[in-house]
Known about the structure:
By secondary structure, this protein is α+β, with helices and mostly antiparallel strands. 47% of the residues lie in helices and 21% in strands. The strands form 3 sheets. Strands 3, 4, 6, 7, 8, 10, 12 and 13 form an 8-stranded antiparallel β-sheet that branches. A 3-stranded antiparallel β-sheet has the order 5-11-9, with no helix packed on it. A two-stranded antiparallel ribbon has the order 1-2. Strand 6 (243-251) and strand 7 (255-263) form a beta hairpin. Helix 2 runs antiparallel to helix 3. The chain is rod-shaped and about 155 Å long. The termini are far apart. The structure holds zinc ion. Zinc ion is lined by residues 207, 224, 226, 228, 305.
Amino acid sequence: MNGKYTSRSVYDRIQKMDKIINSLGRWLGERVDILIMPRFGSSKKFKVRVITVVLAFILWVTVTGIGIFFFIRAYDYNITKADNRLMRVKMQLISDELERGRKYLELTRTTESQMRQMLGMPGGKFVNMPKGWEEKQEKADARAKAMFGKDLKDFDTEEFEQYIDEIEDTAQTRLAGFQEIAWYYANAREGLHSTPSIRPSTSRISSGFGYRLDPFGRRSTKRHNGLDFAGKPDSPIMVTADGVVRHTGWVNGYGQAVLVDHGFGYSTLYAHTTGIRVKAGDVVKRGQTIATMGSSGRSTGTHLHYEVWKDGQPVNPRNYFK
Ligand SMILES: [Zn+2]
């Protein structure tokens, strides 16, 4: 019963659709009058089929659609053009910033020179740039200007990379320069440890540096290259700066002596000792007891003969402690 009802319903629908199509066909095939009435002159009357009108409508819609499409495309193009202009302005800003960064980097070169002067450092391989360096710099400036002035489409990525590489090179050179300064400074601080700066003995000073009277009251022609400390036998002798023991043992005229190298042009000598506690090659620290006071060698009594040498010349040890 239900199935019968359904098949009949479908049949009814098909029949209905058939009727609509037939009437639509008839309607499309029908002729209508189109009357054109100009303001002046006689009117004209066309007899056209409905299908013609429908096709004309479809054609009109299509043409309008294409028109809109092209309009949007032109609009897009203009937007892109504006974007490009904006991009160029942005590029200009970036290039200006980059150039400024590079100039600042150059300024650090002056700072580096000043630091070296302040530290009493030699020029160093990084400060003395190769000849024609400034010319090269000017050329780089001109190249940068030309590169950033170009149209976007002519923008050369390789050229830009080279430009960035150059900045990186300069930065690395500067960094190496500053590292060299840091290294030098650290070593200069080491130099403080290597400069004699304490008394080698707590005993009293019995003879100064320079010319002195000989035991017969005449002014000796022989310089006294050191300082004498007269004290009790076996009182400690301290090394006056960090260093490396260069020699221990008998030295003519000096008896049992200890010679210590401190680097930075300094060495110290401790003579007429007994009980040497170090040997050649030992690393010693300032204040360390290296020997005891005696009277070995050409000596008239228990004393320490102490010398300070700077750059191959004996200097007054009195200037190396308070
Ligand atoms: Zn002496």
